[in-house]
Write a structure and sequence with these properties.
mainly alpha; about 0% strand
Length: about 250
Amino acid sequence: MTLLHAALPQMVSAFPAAGAVPFAHALGGLALNPLSPTSVLSGLGALGVFLVLFAETGLLIGFFLPGDSLLFTAGLFCTTGASATVHLSLPVVALAAAAGALLGAQVGFLIGRRAGTAMLARTNNRYLVNGAARADQLLARYGHAKAIVLARFIPVVRTVVNPMAGSLSVSTRTFTVWQVAGGLVWSIGVTVAGYVLGSSIPGIDTYLLPIVAVIVVVSLIPLVLELRRARRTSKTSTAGPEATVRANCE
């Protein structure tokens, strides 16, 4: 955990994780719920995709935002009829998603590079702490390139890995190449997956709400698994070597 305490928040103190209300004002003071993909898309359209992905991947206050479910839902909305309440253009959404994901990650990296070693040490937010610990493990296990790509698909981890990479002095070229590769696969891939599903189901508007609910639940599964894993690791580390052996056998 040395890396955890050496890596990520002056950023947290600069952007308090108390976050949802200030972020809603940052979205233009609109009466929308930043945690609801439908609310963001109906209120802001493709611009909402850009803003949410930029905040989620570039600013620690964005760790709670629904990146996966927003992308998938945006893809679904690209298949609705022109007269539907929300109808989006797939090329525009894909461009907004890629721009938000790539620019956000690069900004997060630059913030980490500038803030240096003080960044994550002062946060008490358990989601950010667990996410940073998991990012630490990914970087140690897979190396910079693979970790940067894999982190795109794990909620919270994709928020903290970019500033962590900056604070660890990962080369700008290495980070940029792999964050672009992972960012494009994630942002456009999940959007197109939603579009394909919507195109294959006649009258997708009828089933939109239950589908979005399922998407939100599924997108939270990796986060729940990571929290359970972190809790189990914490318990075994305080229970001694025998408990650690039993946990590994499980």
